[in-house]
Design brief:
Layout lengths: L7 E10 L8 E3 L1 E5 L2 E2 L5 E4 L18 E5 L2 E5 L6 E4 L5 E7 L2 E7 L2 H11 L5 E5 L5 E2 L2 H4 L5 E2 L7 E5 H13 L14 E3 L10 E8 L2 E12 L16 H7 L3 E2 L5 E12 L4 E3 L3 E6 L3
Parallel strand pairs: 14-15
Antiparallel strand pairs: 1-2, 1-15, 1-21, 3-4, 3-20, 5-11, 6-7, 7-8, 9-10, 10-11, 12-13, 14-19, 16-17, 16-21, 17-19, 18-19
């Protein structure tokens, strides 16, 4: 692998952090990389009365919950609701929660947050949990090649990478079918790369990112299999079928036993503690298995 003459050169086009799992993301000009991904990404999660996570799959209106960072708080806003202020370092009591097949100790954010989500979603008994940084939850070693990759409440991996060309191709196909274009936020990426051909991110194994503090190395380890969430309109919470129907025509992925893929999950090989910024240079080499 040549660092001086890479196969691919590009830049970071956009950066997103999603503080509350399955709520709207925050687009940022820069994001601190920590060992679990971006700082505060999927640090909070809505759970039901049994402690099991809930998402836009069950409650599409979660897309309307919009976070904002404000000093030492995350402020959540949603239609018809007063703002909910969450202290970044404030928790109320221990809780046990479940994300997919993983059970973990966490922190409950208290009655006000619980009532806020229960009222907005019309579902009694919901709670808001905060990931416990003392807990070590790991991405699947089947895909990481044995590397220990810690995560918080993300579905499975620290980061999600998508190229702008992939969205452009999807929107071209949507337009051909008479459908409106969609935004990248539906796919909930962390890094969006500029100037790539459609799904070039599928063809590289490692990204090298030049930051002010030094090089960051990300390994792209698993295609991101897609559930119905990309068909939730982030502006209205309404659901449809156009996105998955369109992806069905060209994105069935043999690596996922025919599931639809869009974007690549990534783990951190080097550079935790560095800050990624929009415009940072990215280089990579093609991967051939």
């Amino acid at each position: 692998m040549s660092a001086t003459d890479p196969d691919l050169r590009t830049r970071i086009a956009r950066l997103f952090v999603h503080p509350v799992k399955s709520c709207a993301g925050i687009e940022l000009p820069e994001a601190l990389l920590v060992e679990t991904g971006f700082d505060l990404d999927r640090a909070w999660m809505v759970v039901d009365a049994a402690g099991r996570f809930v998402t836009q799959r069950e409650f599409p209106r979660l897309a309307l919950v919009r976070p904002q960072f404000k000093r030492l708080e995350v402020v959540l806003r949603a239609p018809g609701m007063l703002a909910l202020h969450l202290g970044i370092n404030e928790v109320e009591r221990p809780a046990r929660v479940r994300v997919w097949d993983d059970e973990a100790e966490a922190w409950d954010m208290g009655g006000v947050a619980a009532q806020w989500f229960s009222d907005f979603l019309g579902q009694p008994g919901l709670r808001l949990a905060r990931f416990d940084p003392e807990v070590r939850r790991l991405a699947s070693r089947r895909w990481t090649g044995g590397v220990e990759a810690p995560i918080e409440f993300a579905d499975g991996f620290p980061l999600l990478v998508i190229g702008e060309g992939s969205l452009a191709e999807l929107n071209r196909r949507l337009a051909s079918g008479g459908h409106a274009p969609v935004g990248i936020e539906r796919f909930r990426p962390n890094l969006v790369l500029a100037g790539l051909e459609p799904h070039d991110e599928d063809r590289v194994q490692e990204l090298r990112i030049a930051t002010a503090e030094g090089e960051v190395r990300l390994k792209l380890v698993k295609p991101c299999g897609r559930c119905p969430i990309p068909d939730v309109d982030p502006a209205t919470g309404a659901t449809g079928t156009a996105v998955l129907d369109t992806l069905q025509g060209y994105r069935a992925d043999a690596r996922l036993d025919g599931a639809l893929s869009f974007g690549m999950n990534a783990i951190i090989l080097a550079g935790a503690g560095h800050t990624l910024r929009v415009g940072d240079e990215v280089s990579a080499d093609w991967y051939f298995s």
